[in-house]
């Protein structure tokens, strides 16, 4: 019997589509498997490369899950898929605005209800808090998470902040000034994601989803970095406060909130470059005494 897979994705640079295509390369060759790709298209589109003001403008809505408008989905009204793959990226430790918009749409409920879902993430390196929100959305839409694949930039945290800013603001992602590594998920990691495809095929063709995540984790699909999770957890709580504070001044694009957005921008830069290095040093010093707690965190965020 033939199997139909829907891939829902949003991408600005094309990176996330490259990742998901690598994952689906093998299932796509399976006999009787049909894969349909549905791109989320915000109306109007978000800019890429971004200007600084536009980049920070997207902060409160990302954090509070306030959706943008989307062009209608091409597959709207269909619900005959055997698997939905959702490829999403974090914006400000939360799902990106177009991804929030998809999950909150009536079309999502129709597509997702009763269906197994696999999530695929392509991020700088902080995806854990966003994935918690994605899990909520999946439950609210009546579907069940069957697998999770996470790709991220493996460069040191403080260097990848520089490379991603350059990438986001200029579109350039090559090596920079000799020491800043290329931005984004490495091509080797993108190509390597093809190894998850046969595991997905097995589950899809047999209809048995229960063991998929264990197999994906064993194949290295979810590498949790507890030091970064610690930063994310604190950041998420503070981002919520900032987002509410900015939203009090007005909705997306309103002039009245410009000053508060500017203040947030300086706050964020200070946290990244002044506070987070100290937090990382303290984490490294405490690490030998916290091995059990760290292992527990890894297992927690590797599971569904
Ligand atoms: C506004 C904005 C905020 C971002 N925030 C995060 C973040 O919190 N954590 C993270 O790991 N990456 C973050 N990124 C990087 C994205 O998750 C993603 O990797 C990058 O934008 C490339 O994705 P693309 O496929 O849409 O081009 C952010 C990107 C943008 C544009």
Structure, described:
The protein folds into 2 domains: 221 residues, Rossmann fold (3-Layer(aba) Sandwich); 76 residues, no CATH class. Helices cover 51% and strands 13% of the residues. The protein contains 13 helices and 7 strands. The strands form 2 sheets. The protein has a 5-stranded parallel β-sheet with strand order 2-1-3-6-7, with helices on both faces. The chain has a two-stranded antiparallel sheet with strand order 4-5. Helix 1 packs across helix 9 and helix 11 packs antiparallel against helix 12. The protein is globular, with a radius of gyration of 19 Å. The two termini are 28 Å apart.
The poorly predicted ranges are none
Q: Which sequence of strands runs across the widest sheet?
A: 2-1-3-6-7
Mean model confidence by pLDDT = 96
CATH C-level of the largest domain? Alpha Beta
CATH architecture term of the largest domain:
3-Layer(aba) Sandwich
Total number of beta strands: 7
Q: Major β-sheet, in short?
A: 5 strands, parallel
Output the radius of gyration: 19 Å
Shape: globular
Oligomer: single chain
Percent in strands: 5-15%
CATH fold-level name of the largest domain: Rossmann fold
Total of domains:
2
Tally of alpha and pi helices: 13
* Global structural class: alpha/beta
Task: State the order of secondary-structure elements, H for helix, E for strand.
Answer: EHEHHEEEHHEHEHHHHHHH
Cα(first) to Cα(last) distance is: 28 Å
Helix residue percentage: 40-55%
Small ligands present:
flavin mononucleotide
């Amino acid at each position: 019997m033939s199997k139909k897979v829907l891939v829902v994705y949003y991408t600005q640079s094309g990176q996330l589509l490259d990742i998901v295509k690598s994952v689906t390369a093998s299932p796509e060759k399976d006999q009787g498997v049909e894969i349909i790709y549905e791109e989320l298209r915000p109306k109007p589109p978000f800019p890429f490369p971004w200007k600084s003001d536009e980049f920070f403008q997207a902060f409160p809505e990302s954090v509070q899950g306030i959706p943008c408008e989307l062009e209608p989905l091409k597959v709207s009204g269909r619900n005959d898929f055997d698997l939905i793959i959702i490829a999403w990226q974090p914006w400000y430790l939360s799902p990106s605005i177009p991804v929030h918009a998809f999950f909150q749409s009536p079309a999502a409920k129709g597509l997702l209800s009763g269906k197994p879902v696999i999530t695929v993430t392509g991020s700088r390196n902080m995806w854990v808090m966003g994935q918690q929100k994605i899990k909520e959305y999946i439950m609210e839409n009546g579907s069940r998470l069957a697998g999770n694949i996470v790709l991220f930039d493996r460069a040191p945290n403080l260097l990848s902040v520089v490379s991603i800013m350059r990438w986001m603001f200029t579109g350039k992602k090559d090596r920079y000034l000799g020491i800043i590594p290329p931005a984004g998920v490495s091509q080797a990691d993108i190509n390597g994601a093809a190894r998850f495809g046969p595991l997905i095929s097995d589950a899809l063709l047999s209809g048995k989803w229960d063991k998929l995540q264990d197999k994906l984790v064993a194949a290295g699909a979810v590498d949790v970095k507890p030091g970064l999770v610690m930063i994310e957890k604190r950041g998420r709580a503070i981002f919520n406060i900032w987002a509410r504070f900015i939203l009090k001044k007005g909705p997306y694009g309103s002039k009245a909130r410009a000053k508060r957005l500017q203040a947030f921008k300086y706050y964020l830069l200070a946290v990244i470059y002044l506070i987070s290095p100290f937090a990382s040093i303290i984490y490294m010093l405490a690490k030998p005494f916290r091995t059990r707690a760290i292992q527990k965190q890894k297992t927690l965020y590797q599971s569904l």
